[in-house]
Amino acid sequence: MVCSMMKKGLVAAALGAGALYLAFGTHATSYVKTAFHKVRQNAKDAVDPQFEIDRARDEINNLRPMIEKNIETLARAEVDAEHLERETATIQANLTSEKKVILGLRDQLKSSEVRLTSHVADTADEIKGDLAHRYDHYRYVEQLLAEKQATLKAKRKTIKAAHEQLENLRTQKSTLLAKLAGIEARLRMIEATAAKNEFQFDDSALSRAKETVTELEERLDVMARRAEMEGRYAGLEGTSRVVDPSRDVVKEVDDAFGGNGSRPTPKSGEKSL
Fold it and tell me: What is the per-residue pLDDT for 16?
């Protein structure tokens, strides 16, 4: 059953890849990557800024164990360096003393002198053997001293670099904390501004209302102007002067105004209407 499900999953993946290739061709991979980054960015944008601030603060605080561990290592390194420095100083002093003894034995051999040690006469061969032993030991210690001095030099260099790194880390941590405090303060200001804007008015609705009132005013102005013009120019339309022959207009006028009324005779020079 598991194999069957795996086969179905592989077939579905192959079909999906094939569909993407058919849709986007060789750019299918680019489309998939872009879509993935877009989804991830949208997911990050949906996270509460305060949560991100707290997460950043936790990450900065997580630097403390690393700093403390390196401080402990640095302290041990400095102590070791001090011990090594004292050790090299002691070796150097011993070599200086040993060098004087070696030079003294050399001078004895050159002068063929015989010195007494514990009341026993040391022959020239014994002195030569002692000189060879001391000189070989001197060279071994001298080489050992050079190695320890090289180790001390490298350790001091490492300690100096560690101090610089810790100082840089401390500075960077302080800078990050200061930036984070500024970001959080800015967030508080944005939230305060948003709280002040709790009552929000739709400017578009107000604009639509103003536009409607303006249109009504214009419409009434047009209606008033039209009525005025109709009263002024209505007579220009003219009336028909063709009268029905069967109509007795005179009788209509006599009936309306009286048949016995006399019309005034127009004076000379006047025209009758």
Answer: 55
What does the block give as tokens for 175?
């800078």
List, for residues 1-58, the tens digit of each pLDDT value: 545 655 565 555 555 555 555 555 565 565 555 654 555 555 555 668 888 888 888 8
60-114+121-196: CATH number: 1.10.287
- Within 8 A by CB and 6+ apart from 116, the residues are 122
Q: What integer best gives the mean pLDDT of the chain?
A: 76
In the chain, what is the straight-line distance between the N-terminal and C-terminal CA atoms, in Å?
117
H or E element at residue 40: helix 28-45
Taking 50 as the threshold, does the pLDDT of residue 233 lie above it? yes
DSSP letters, 77-111, are HHHHHHHHHHHHHHHHHHHHHHHHHHHHHHHHHHH
Cα–Cα distance for residue pair 138/102, rounded to 1 Å: 9
Distances, alpha carbon 163 to alpha carbons 75, 77, 166, in Å: 10, 11, 5
What gap in Å lies between CA 26 and CA 20, rounded to an integer? 9
pLDDT on residue 119? 40
- Cβ atoms 78, 159 nearer than 8 A: yes
Contact 74, 163 (CB under 8 A): yes
C-alpha to C-alpha distance for 246 and 224, rounded to whole angstroms: 42
Q: Is 77 exposed, middle or buried (0-12, 13-18, 19+ CB in 10 A)?
A: middle
